[in-house]
Amino acid sequence: MTEDDAGAIAVVGAAHAVAPIGDGRNDAELLAPVVDRALTEAGLGRDDVGVVCTAGSEFLNGQVGTVMGAFDAFPGWPPRTHAHLEGDGAFALHEAWIRLLAGEAEAALVCAYSRPLADEPRRVLDLQLDPYVVAPLAPRPEDLAGLQATGPFTASQPCAGAAAVVLAAAAGRAPGRPAAVVAGIEQRLDTHDLGERDLATSPSVAAAAAALGLPGTVIDVLEVHAPFSHQRRIVVDALGAEVRALDPSGGCLAADPIMVTGLIRVVEAANAVRRGEAARAVAHATNGPCLQHNLLCLLEAA
Amino acid sequence: MNLRGLRAPHTLQLAFDRSVGGATAAFLAGLARAEIWGGRAVDGRIRVPPQEGDELVRVGDTGAVRAWSWVAAPAPDQPLARPFAYALVQLDGADGALLHVVDAGSEAALAPGLRVRADWRAERTGSVLDIRAFVPADAGPRAAPADPEAHADLEGESGPGAQADPEAAGAPPEPPDGLVVASDRVLRYTFEPGLVPSRFYQALAAGRIEGGRCPACDQVYVPPHERCPACGAVLEPCAVADTGVIESVTVVHLPVPGLEVELPFAWARVRLDGAHVSFPHLVGDVPGGLEEVRVGQRVAAVWAPAGERPPSWEAIRHFRPVEP
Amino acid sequence: MTGPAAPAADAARALTPRGTPRGRTRCAVVGVGQTRHAAARSDVTMAGLAREAALAALADAGLGWDAVDAVVLGTAPDTIEGVMSPELSMAPALGAVGKPTFRAYTSGNAGGQAATLGVGLVASGRFARVLVVAYEKQSEGRTGAVTLQHLPFEAPWQGGTGSLYGALCSDYIARSGAPPHIGDVAALKDRRNALRNPFAQVRRADVTLEAIAASRMLWSPIRLLHASPSSDGACAVVLAAEDAAAGCPDPAWVHGAATRSEPPVAPAHDFVDPRCGRDCAAAVYRQAGITDPRRELDVAELFVPFSWVEPPTLENVGLAEPGEGWRLVDDGATALDGALPVNPSGGLLGANPIGAAGLVRFAEAALQVRGAAGEHQIDGARLAVGHAQGGFSNFVAMWVVGRDKP
């Protein structure tokens, strides 16, 4: 480890799994084996994790307070710092990274679960719309995405899934484990008012990319969270970087566990670095209609 | 794919009357008067609808289509029954666009910059749906709005910016008292409790209580989980007695939705013999009255008759006090 | 990304956090704001409600929206208002457009969780000023609480908060031997305190000990006048790093902040005295250098949704010896003129906007040490604790704030 890495936080374990909707397992049953794998990869035990950040959505499976049931799957006893959010797991990753930077612990576990049991899984996302002047018009996420498209586009296929990422500072790492250093995480929120946005561009991706110093640089691997096929190009353009491999994992169109998909992009990008396939990788995650809220995570070889 | 787990229909009823105020209320009140009000943001741009903190500015009810998304097969809850477009309409006098629907008959009739005008409903309530749709500006005569006074200053308007001058537009609308946005959504699910809970519920239906023993902690959970919440080990199924002890109890005097039981009733956390965690259940058959139910009281399950046991805690009607 | 306080350093950090030393930047509470709380705030939208608190906090700090580097929104569960990820549709109202925006979700604890995340954002050294907002607008549901629509296979009696708290309080009584009037005394204290709080929803001057004791039983031992109301309301605080706080008129300083949770189903989970609460308290006192919290703290704002919850909470967060919390209440030690005033604002019995209620406790603690609490000010308060909790007693957040820099 170089002198420079002393204060750095790295991904030392990352795993995910997707599953068909309705395979009978609950959130905890989906998540537990993924958490096990991430911790095993990291060479860490449950007690080594001082911060846990979780993400999911109670509307996806109709269960108020899903996190109460998910506790079986992540280290929770004895008590520790834990935060939960309704949204994509990549945003929970941001919180975990911040808490480690703030010195709250030496290692953190980030996990997300998705079990879309609603009859129309993607339509649950209608509940993100402004309830006063947009929701009464009843546009579907596909309809709004269509405003952004210049031609035909493909929508992702919702599925169930879970992901887990272990972050650790130098003092929290087990020796000899491959690590992907988190060189930065930035996220920005655009307005929800689609008429106020140039939907062909993404100011929030551009601002996050600028804050990470990405424009004009080379990225070995870029993993994009684009639930609609045309959104991928918008994200790539907004980065302003040369991308050598775009979505080498295959992307998220074929399997999109809503609220986990963004964290899976981090898993894929981090593992590309940890396997030595990339010196510099970027994961993108999004939430909200038409790429409203965007996060970028820059990962580099240790 | 679901080989072992239970599943059942489930709904979430989301029924709200959402109150409005500020910029949103002014926008909706304007629509009730067949007027469209936007807001001048701090950067000078005029946006529709206005956002909180904006200076209210009247804009035109005509404009140009900036982008659209064609809906070939509208769903019953969508604004129009025949194919239509969701569109971003840049109203005359505004810098930003308004998301609404365009009723143009066919997608071929749409083009960037297409001029459209609001087709107002005769009866308006202060809703974004007071505009039935935007229609091509050359499509037939305007329907007469229900309130001709409110509409008078719109007659003859044409060019961009016609209504962007607030002084020419009159006073911003005052929202009527009690203006709400009604929101009704029923989310339908096929709910699955999970594999281990399914086995537990099915055991209850068969008159048995199945716990989960942690091989590492030697603690028994009722209901069981796949994993030990304390250490993460995979729990092993084990049988648990249907007798136990009350850990805590309250007498409930308020009705519980979905629970048909006479008030008041006793609600207790019961820890079964051999188990290390408690669960909530009802206590009945108390000879001396509910206030006699106390922490530490021994209880036994009163099962529903065989054949009337659902895969749920409701397979046990309640717990009754027993002698130590 | 970070504020105008130190642009050069911020830019360098953004490029190479690899070399950034970790550790805690000092954090100040430079602005506090809350809305008038009411059974129904039918004059505003959800965004308008949250914005009202945010504007008040910014005005208190003497700052504009541009000064904010990140926004944290706390509210939960989303089902109460039927809106998913409300930060999305509230973005312009919260000045969040173009900014990093975070979300906190742990039911009654959400407001406290949001505040501790805000402290973390500042402590990380990456954000100079953070706006933390929490809100709840629970008056608008037409068909009863969505949160009570029980799941298939679950019994309808499994989820009720009132039953849970009734049982918790009866358990406390069984353990401690607290006499039946303690709930009445605690309720009268908070209700009288609320009369001094202009933001409180419940301000009834005519309430007596006798009226409380005779009020309708809901979930024994909890009676109607022991219970908090259902409220619409919002709260906000502006947090600033030490450098950025320099220009602000009247900061309170964060001496300690932490959040802890535990599985609600673990055998060791004690609903009455949860370890997450004990650990959280120990952590914030340690950070603040407090060894005798009952004597060193001047005032406490605790999350007490039912008056009977005050005694076990005092014990849980180390402000009373085990089993002795009810005696402090009985002796008046937690009254406005007592040795350790608890909830001089009236606490949740004055208003309980669930997702915001925890942040209100944190905000009230800050007001006390700034000497800015108005009629419910505790004279000379220099060190105060704010506390929030939620779920099934399994989420807790706390902070200790002081008049002096730590």
What can you tell me about this protein's structure?
- The complex is a heterotrimer of chains A (302), B (324) and C (406).
- Chain A contains 8 helices and 10 strands.
- With 302 residues, chain A is of the alpha/beta class.
- The longest helix of chain A is centred in the N-terminal third of the chain and has 16 residues.
- Chain A is globular.
- Chain B is mainly beta and 324 residues long.
- Chain B is 9% helix and 36% strand.
- About 6% of the residues of chain B have low confidence.
- Chain C has 406 residues and is α/β, with parallel strands linked by helices.
- A 9-stranded mixed sheet of chain C has the order 3-2-4-7-1-8-11-10-9. In chain C, strands 5-6 form a two-stranded antiparallel ribbon.
- In chain C, β10 and β11 form a beta hairpin.
- The chains are: A alpha/beta (302), B mainly beta (324), C alpha/beta (406).
- Chains in contact: A-B, A-C, B-C.
- Chains A and C meet through β3, α4, β6 and α6 of A and β3, α3, β8 and α8 of C.
In summary, what is this structure?
The complex is a heterotrimer of chains A (302), B (324) and C (406). Chain A is of the alpha/beta class.
Sheet of most strands of chain C: 9 strands, mixed
Largest interface: A-C, 72 and 74 residues
What's the overall geometry of chain A?
globular
Structural class of chain C: alpha/beta
Shape of chain C: globular
> What gap, in angstroms, lies between the N and C termini of chain A?
7 Å
- What is the string of SSEs of chain C from the N terminus onward? HEHEEHEHHHEEEHEHHEHHHHEE
**Main sheet of chain A?**
10 strands, mixed
Run of helices and strands of chain A: EHEHHEHEHEEHEHEHEE
Provide the residue-averaged pLDDT of chain A.
95
If helices are DSSP runs of H or I spanning 4 or more residues, what is the number of helices of chain A?
8
The total of beta strands of chain A comes to 10
Q: Strands of the biggest beta sheet of chain A: in what spatial order? A: 3-2-4-5-1-6-10-9-7-8
Radius of gyration of chain C: 20 Å
Alpha-carbon Rg of chain A, integer: 18 Å
**Spans where pLDDT lies below 50 across 5 or more residues of chain C:** 1-20
Percent helix among the residues of chain C? Answer: 25-40%
